[in-house]
Write a structure and sequence with these properties.
Family: Belongs to the NanE family.
Number of strands: 8
Shape: globular
Helix content: 40-55%
InterPro entries: Aldolase_TIM (IPR013785), NanE (IPR007260), RibuloseP-bd_barrel (IPR011060)
GO molecular function, one term: N-acylglucosamine-6-phosphate 2-epimerase activity
Keywords: Carbohydrate metabolism, Isomerase
CATH topology: TIM Barrel
EC number: 5.1.3.9
CATH architecture: Alpha-Beta Barrel
Number of helices: 10
CATH superfamily: Aldolase class I
Length: 238
């Protein structure tokens, strides 16, 4: 998919992140493909997915463009979203339309710089590049380094952004005003109103994951809210 075509397709639209960790009940390509198909029926215009097996299953089931990543932990680095060229190559082989990678200022495994990663993608594929960042400075730096879009995915997930309020609507607004590339709102967006607000603040598109595709966590939101209220009611009766 060409650059212009992809950005036209997702402008003002919803992207759904279909991911499940190995320890989660919905883990597995068959389930993720069904989740992605449900997202497509609901109106999603693209899917964000983790791992080659899931990506291939989702592409076959939906024909939607896929923002692909590979989560891989390395002992010598905190970076885990598409951290090295090995993961880049696997995503290119899977023919994803977009590669998402950590574009924070944290040190990468093998001392591979963000610029090296971007150059490798440009030299070996036509994939677009999404830089996942955690703060304003990283977003601007990633845009100048050559990513095609920046995403606010990692706000509150780096040691220096742990205290940021989520979803990080101020970051979305700041980057949308200053960035030379489209800003994709992502990260802890839990409600339709929050998604709409992110768009109003200047996001090109909005990614929602947990609130749609991780029912065990959404269930816990409801459970915790109900329990808090139940305790308060009990205390008033005493």
């Amino acid at each position: 998919m060409a650059y212009k075509d992809f950005f036209n397709k997702i402008k003002g639209e919803l992207i759904v992140s279909c991911q499940a960790l190995p320890e989660e009940p919905l883990h597995g390509p068959e389930t993720m493909a069904k989740m992605a198909l449900a997202a497509k029926i609901g109106g999603a215009k693209a899917i964000r997915a983790n791992g080659v097996v899931d990506i291939l299953a989702i592409k076959a089931a939906t024909s939607l463009p896929v923002i692909g990543l590979i989560k891989q932990e390395y002992t010598n680095s905190p970076v885990y979203i598409t951290p090295t060229k090995k993961e880049l190559q696997a995503l290119m082989d899977a023919k994803v339309e977009v590669i998402a990678l950590d574009a924070t200022s944290q040190s990468r495994p093998n001392r591979e710089a963000l610029g090296e990663m971007i150059a490798y993608i440009r030299d070996h594929s036509n994939c677009l590049i999404m830089g996942d960042v955690s703060n304003f400075e990283e977003g601007i730096a990633a845009a100048w380094a050559g990513v095609d879009m920046i995403s606010t995915t990692l706000s509150s997930y780096t040691p220096y952004t742990k205290n940021r309020l989520i979803p990080d609507l101020p970051l979305i607004e700041e980057l949308a005003k200053a960035s030379k590339v489209p800003v994709i709102a992502e990260g802890n967006i839990k409600t339709p109103d929050e998604a709409a607000e992110a768009l109003r603040l200047g996001a090109h598109a909005v990614v929602v994951g947990t609130a749609i595709t991780r029912p065990q966590i959404v269930t816990k939101y409801f459970h915790d809210a109900i329990r808090r209220t139940a305790v308060k009611i009990s205390e008033k009766k005493i």
